[in-house]
Amino acid sequence: MCVSFSSNRKMSSRRKVDHLERTAHNLRHEVISQATICGITNESDRVKRIRLAVANKEFTFKAGQWVDFFIPGVSNVGGFSICSNPGLLRRDGVIELAVKYSEHPPARWIHTECGLDSVVSLRAGGDFFFDPLPSEPAKNLLLVAGGVGINPLYSILLHVADLHRKRAAQGYGYEPGFVQLCYSAKSTDELLFKNTIIGLSQEFSGKIACDFHVTQQKTNISEELRPYVNEGRISEKILEEHIFQNNLCYICGPPPMIQSVSSQLINLGFPKEKILFEKWW
Length: 281
Fold this sequence. Notes:
Oxidoreductase NAD-binding domain-containing protein 1; seven-stranded mixed beta sheet; 7 helices; alpha/beta; NAD; globular; oxidoreductase; FAD-bd_FR_type
């Protein structure tokens, strides 16, 4: 889950601030829509990916945003980043979430109680998104993800791919700049969406690139993944290789990682105002 870091307030360690309170000052869409679970897959040992058919055709979101997740009979409201892109909602009327198991009631419900045809309600929101106008100049994107912080960045990556396909088919529309994804997890088993990400880097060679980083890999890395995987954390040297003119950097992951990557980028002369981040808890 990602929540806006900009809305974070100092809080007592004795009390967890819930999602609605933590994001009270963030942008929210007005529409609350019912949605039906229409697909459930295991993305990893601890992450379930659910597909939801959205009932209200007025429901929209921007690539990178999250949803308020209302479950009948559960008092806690979940906050989960959307891992699909707006184009999938427009085409098929569905969105997808990838949720890591925790004891927080909404996450626990997704892992232990929800099934096909379960009905929930959704409202989209968040200030962390990529939604360029067709007339805007191309921007190069550096996407830096840690763990399940990949979710909103994967949505942005899929959106960029859609923009490339639309421009190729129609000959007009927003022209994306170069996109580099740096994605860190404990092991290759925990690299979510890795096959699709590699596929996008191959489909859009020279326009989209990815490198994966594993910090606690205990098994051999498979031959097909090896060209994309580095052992160890995302370093300042690696970040320096991916800084280009007209860059925007989006970061999502654990708070210490966000702090480290932001500090390294600033040390490298990257403009602070072009570093956008969300913090998952």
